[in-house]
Specification:
heterodimer, A: mainly alpha, MetI-like fold, B: alpha/beta, D-Maltodextrin-Binding Protein, domain 2, 9-stranded mixed β-sheet, globular
Chain lengths: 293, 434
């Protein structure tokens, strides 16, 4: 029998909810509404003239082949970041979980990069891989690789993926480690007694039991790749060369802030908003079914 | 107790005295040593009179300070003076009501002002068709061609700059054959290889006098000459003769470190090269195609100008006008010119600098002025004025990058640049039509 707590007063529950609702409305709904409103307008930089143009901003976007290519770039980028980020951190967490001596030191070191701001992470990696002076570039050159991400799009993509993944690994690592430690020892020991090797124990016991964590991280990492990697890109490639690393959110920033095209930028953020809503809904609808809680 | 009162009185008296002065806020983008020079200028202006206090504030790089000023204007607290880079000219100019044209400001304030006193290649960039100066030219440079003389000697070549692109190609081949890793690089690809290239060969960048005649302009940078040049750069990139460095001034360091032997970049790069280079180098005119009639013409400026924002009080505008008059003084200009490497904006300042014997010591500074004033500017070499050119230049650079990376041919890329650029121009035209 479910136990329910009922407020006797009619207004008290609403009053208690009000602060949260107010915050959501002011900081989430209001800007979203404004973006939607601006997306139907054409405005000069200083806001001196404003005209209602209907769907023109959207039509212009979908007629632009570079904007369409940006979807593909974003998809590739997000899959790489989420895929590599989750795989590497799962590997690290499994290793760290097996370590007996000095476990705390390993763990602390692995968590460190999370404290680094995305822009700083971007700058760090950009320095290491800088076309003229980077230390990694120096070794790559000696190996006969023509490393210049300023002009080679695939190298630029690789750079922003590395920087973004590096930044996110700590976060994923923490969750995986917690997940691994909450798996009952008795299950693992029973499997070991039955003669299952470490690999088999991992794939038949640990991995399925980690699936809620993996699913959660998949959602978080995709959202991270979509929005939070903005700082990494701005500090390194700025979307170049020739828009090869122009992900959707960076184009929103560029058109809105640097190019002062509010209408076009707002139209893009409306599209982006729709994409994220659909993606998250899809993830919960289909991927979550495979998760074993 | 009494001492406390006196101290308090002193504390309040100081700002009270300052308040009798009219404050003038100036947002600029001059970082580092240039920023110190700006503070120095403001200090001298403040010391020269008592009524106004000029307060310069560094607001980040050009795009950032412009964005900040636009946001401030929307919120109703824009600065009096805003330094805007040359590509933002059309955007500022179209914002009627947000700005006050400099010519009008000077007349209203009753300050002596003669538009003819300014170097035509510099002031022309910021003047409308009726001859009214819209913004005050502040820091102007142009694109130059730099050579590493030691690298040329090592390759068995005379330490002289190739004059034409044909000679340039021959020199580049020899440098490569002599083992030079990076032969040529450039800074500001669109500014050097499209904008200055067009002016230097007297061909239009866009219709309507490069956009100066109206916002209903279209890009014309897919002409056979443009295609020929960009295609040559693409071929050089393929052969390993041209190393692309990026869209801003990343090329400067590649030349100054000795990595690249030939370099095209801003005249303002000289200060940095002088400090860093451990080899013999010199600055020269940009190469040109000698089979193009009338080439070389004159190059165009880059840099920034000072815009006066609207909605301020009359006495404040008087202070701004006084500051501009101060900036125009030959000795102030000469100081700015010789300490920063930017060109002097008035003919009198140039004469004064010449007489001081400065150019014998600094031939690079003279090359800049000679190239800008090589011939009387034509419709194609006065400058350019395209709406939303921050975006427009980006489009051009993206398409150039596609050629340098070998993913597009020059004709296709420049056709796309024109098509995409024109879409931006049409959008700007529609947004500013009232």
């Amino acid at each position: 029998m479910e136990k329910r707590v009922v407020f006797r007063s009619a207004w008290l529950p609403y009053a208690l909810l009000a602060p949260q609702i107010a915050v959501t409305v002011v900081f989430f709904f209001w800007p979203a509404f404004q973006a939607a409103w601006y997306s139907f307008q054409l405005q000069d930089a200083f806001g001196l003239t404003t005209r209602f143009v209907g769907l023109q901003n959207f039509e212009a976007l979908f007629a632009d082949s570079y904007y369409l290519a940006s979807f593909r770039t974003t998809a590739i980028f997000s899959l790489l970041v989420a895929g590599a980020g989750i795989t590497i951190s799962l590997l690290l967490a499994t290793m760290a979980d097996r370590v007996l001596r000095g476990a705390l030191a390993y763990r602390s070191l692995l968590i460190w990069p999370y404290a680094v701001a995305p822009a700083v992470a971007g700058v760090l990696w950009a320095f290491l891989f800088a076309p003229s002076i980077g230390i990694v570039t120096y070794f790559l050159r000696r190996m006969g690789i023509d490393w210049n991400w300023i002009i080679h799009g695939d190298q630029a993509m690789l750079l922003v993926v590395i920087a973004s993944v590096w930044k996110q690994i700590s976060y994923n690592f923490l969750f995986f480690l917690a997940g691994l430690q909450s798996i009952p020892r008795s299950l693992i020991e029973a499997a070991a007694i039955d003669g299952a090797g470490p690999a088999r124990r991992f794939w038949t016991i640990a991995f399925p039991l980690l699936s809620p964590t993996t699913f959660f991280l998949l959602v978080v990492n995709i959202v991270y790749a979509f929005f939070d990697t903005f700082g990494v890109i701005d500090a390194t490639t700025q979307g170049g060369p020739a828009q090869e690393t122009q992900i959707l959110v960076y184009k929103v920033y560029y058109d809105g802030v640097k190019a002062a095209d509010l209408g076009g930028s707002s139209a893009q953020s409306v599209i982006l908003m729709a994409i994220v809503i659909v993606l998250t809904a899809l993830q919960f609808r289909f991927v979550e079914r495979k998760v074993q809680y | 107790m009494k001492r406390v009162v006196v101290a308090l009185a002193a504390l309040f008296a100081a700002p009270a005295q300052a308040q009798t002065q009219t404050e003038i806020h100036w947002w600029h983008s001059m970082g580092g040593a240039l920023g110190e020079k700006v503070n120095d200028l403001a200090g001298k202006f403040n010391a020269s009179q008592k009524d106004y206090k000029l307060l310069p504030v560094y607001k980040g790089q050009y795009p950032e300070s412009m964005t900040a000023a636009i946001a401030a204007f929307r919120a109703g607290n824009a600065p009096h003076i805003l330094q805007v880079f040359e590509v933002g000219t059309a955007t500022m100019m179209a914002a009627k009501g947000a700005i006050v044209p400099v010519a009008k400001l000077m007349t209203d304030a009753g300050e002596p002002f003669d538009a003819k006193a300014y170097l035509p290649t510099v002031s022309g960039y910021y003047t409308d068709l009726k001859g009214n100066m819209l913004s005050f030219p502040f820091n102007s440079s142009t694109a130059l061609f730099y050579i590493n003389e030691d690298a040329l000697k090592k390759a068995g070549l005379p330490p002289q700059a190739p004059k034409t692109w044909k000679e340039f190609a021959a020199v580049a081949d020899k440098l490569k054959a002599a083992g030079q890793q990076c032969v040529y690089t450039t800074a500001w690809p669109s500014w050097v290889h499209i904008e200055n290239f067009s002016a230097w060969h007297n061909v239009p960048i866009g219709t309507k006098q490069n956009g100066m005649g109206g916002f209903d302009t279209q890009f014309t940078i897919n002409s056979p000459l443009h295609v020929r040049h960009v295609s040559m750069l693409g071929d050089m990139a393929k052969k390993g003769l041209f190393t692309y460095a990026g869209r801003t001034n990343q090329g400067d360091a590649k030349f100054a470190s000795g990595e690249c032997a030939l370099f095209t970049g801003s005249a303002s790069a000289q200060a940095g090269i002088k400090k860093a280079a451990k080899f013999g180098w010199s600055a020269h005119f940009l190469p040109y195609y000698d089979d193009v009639k009338g080439a070389p013409q004159n190059s165009i400026i880059g840099g920034a100008s000072l815009w006066v924002m609207g909605g301020k009080k009359a006495p404040e505008y008087k202070g701004v006008a006084k500051f501009f008059a101060f900036l125009s003084r030959p000795e102030v200009q000469m100081d700015w010119h010789t300490s920063t490497g930017y060109v002097p904006i008035t003919l009198a300042a140039y004469e004064l600098t010449r007489k001081s014997g400065y150019y014998e010591k600094e031939p690079g500074a003279l090359v800049t002025i000679q190239q800008l004033t090589n011939k009387a500017p034509t419709e194609n070499s006065k400058g350019l004025r395209f709406g939303n050119y921050v975006q427009g230049r980006e489009v051009i650079e993206e398409e150039m990058e596609a050629v340098f990376a070998g993913r597009k041919d020059a004709k296709g890329a420049l056709d796309d640049a024109v098509r995409r650029g024109n879409e931006i121009l049409r959008k700007f035209e529609a947004a500013t039509k009232s």
